[in-house]
Write a structure and sequence with these properties.
This protein is an alpha/beta fold. The protein has 19 helices and 6 strands. Strands 1-6-3-4-2-5 form a 6-stranded mixed sheet.
């Protein structure tokens, strides 16, 4: 397939409703659920809320809804939908619900949308169920009148249309986009979302963010999110954290400060965001060469767009060093000031002192335990920096590795129960200074180890008086 056969074009939602389309019989049934529909409306509502009198006519404020791949069907006036039918059918339901409200939308001209739908029982049942959801969502109260809301959707929401002349080419294009086995990672979705949420005035910074992101190793990005950033945010809230997939990306979406209304919630973030930029852009920075870093926290409310990419970059190097200290500079060891903390670090990293053998450190369960300790160390450093970091490592080690000695087998559920049962992440989040955090006693004492491949860990527990000496 040559690029000459592609005819991509961008159309508005209003223009989509002017199309004559069909869904061919070979398409799979309509499978969207109520959750999909509500998520779509949440996104639409969020976008419309950011449209004001100042940016209403600004073409930079658009919402791209995805790509629809078409093939010119046997009927001259109609085109078959090869890809994009789930979303198209949902907007067909929205169109029907709006047509039913014609009396309320008398000033709004709604085109006649022609969409041929196969007589599929599964599709018909899901369409009926979702239509009831759409009706309720259209009727829910909003800050803008319904007619203004719909007018913004019709003019500001867009689709990319790719129409191909041969069916084989249409399927080839569809396969190239969806069937390579390279399914989108959660971080790919976050990248796309936050690029869309950039302030339109920051086009150069947006280009820079894209270039920097594309240079990263995808597996490393995935591990940073799934092993550290996501668990820290979840465990701090007392929630499970082992599964990080597409359904979990919502936790990394927050406020778009250039769009948000002046709610009290967003004011402090807007002030901090603006003040940091004002300071760094001041003409005196050319004299003193001082750069003020934005004061990020892992558990903070996310600032969409540029700040998300900066937030990730802020934690990237320290996260990578925790995940793979052999390939990245170890930032933990230089912060360790006590003999015990230094010994712990060598034992769990496999650079064992004599008589502190830890042959099982690469087992799956031991990896889970190390994941907890790594997340705790990054969370502690993020909150209190170098202050009493050695004590934090010692406490974190006893807390995390006690599970290794108490259980012969460790599963994801074991880790979740252990962390939430005595949650040091939550305690850390509730402490204003290191002494507040350390003002407690670990209720841990191991009578006998249930594993034979962590002798070095056992010895450390005995030396720190958290395990009984053998008689």
């Amino acid at each position: 397939m040559t690029t000459a056969t592609l005819t991509p074009r961008v159309i508005s939602l209003k223009e989509l409703y002017e199309q004559h389309l069909t869904i061919p019989d070979y398409q799979r049934p309509y499978k969207w659920t109520e959750k999909h529909v509500r998520t779509l409306f949440d996104d639409l509502d969020y976008f419309v809320a950011g449209i004001t009198a100042k940016n209403r006519d600004d073409d930079r404020y658009k919402y791209r809804l995805g790509t629809i791949v078409l093939h010119k069907g046997s009927i001259e006036a109609k085109s078959d939908i090869v890809d994009g039918q789930q979303r198209t059918l949902t907007f067909y339901l929205i169109w029907h619900a709006l047509k039913a409200k014609k009396a309320q939308l008398n000033k709004l001209a709604l085109p006649e949308f022609s969409l041929g739908i196969p007589a599929c029982r599964i599709s018909q049942e899901n369409l009926r169920r979702n239509y009831e959801v759409v009706e309720k969502l259209i009727d829910k109260p909003r800050s803008k009148p319904l007619e203004e809301y719909i007018d913004i959707l019709l003019s500001k929401c867009e689709f990319v249309i790719v129409e191909l002349s041969k069916l084989s080419e249409a399927f080839q294009f569809f396969d190239s986009q969806n069937s390579r086995g390279l399914d989108l990672h959660p971080h790919d979705l976050l990248k796309a979302y936050h690029l869309r949420e950039f302030d339109p005035s920051e086009s150069e910074l947006k280009t820079k963010a894209v270039k920097q992101w594309e240079q990263r190793d995808e597996q490393e990005v995935d591990r940073i999110f799934s092993h550290l950033l996501y668990p820290i945010r979840q465990w701090t809230k007392g929630e499970k954290a082992f599964t990080f997939g597409k359904e979990q990306v919502e936790g990394f979406k927050g406020l778009s400060l250039h769009q948000e209304d002046q709610f009290p919630l967003s004011q402090s973030y807007r002030i901090l965001h603006s003040m940091v930029d004002e300071y760094n852009n001041d003409r005196f920075r050319k004299v003193d060469n001082i750069h003020l870093a934005y004061p990020f926290q892992i558990t903070q409310t996310m600032i969409n767009g540029r700040r998300f990419f900066e937030w990730f970059s802020h934690y990237e190097s320290k996260a990578l060093a925790l995940l793979n200290s052999r390939d990245y500079d170890d930032w933990v060891e230089p912060l360790l000031t006590t003999a015990m903390s230094k010994k712990i670090w060598t034992v769990i990293n496999g650079t064992n002192p004599k008589d502190y053998e830890y042959t099982g450190k690469n087992r799956t369960g031991d990896g889970y335990v190390r994941k907890v300790l790594n997340a705790f160390l990054l969370a502690y450093y993020d909150r209190f920096g170098e202050a009493e970091f050695s004590n934090a490592l010692e406490i974190g080690f006893i807390w995390a590795y006690s599970l290794r000695l108490k259980q012969s087998s460790i599963y994801e559920s074991s880790i979740e129960n252990h962390v939430i049962g005595q949650n040091l992440f939550r305690r850390l989040d509730q402490s204003l200074r290191p002494k507040d955090f350390f003002n407690f006693s670990l209720d841990i004492y191991i009578k006998a180890s249930l594993t034979s491949k962590a002798k070095g860990v056992e010895k450390l527990f005995k030396e720190m008086k958290y395990m009984a000496e053998q008689e």
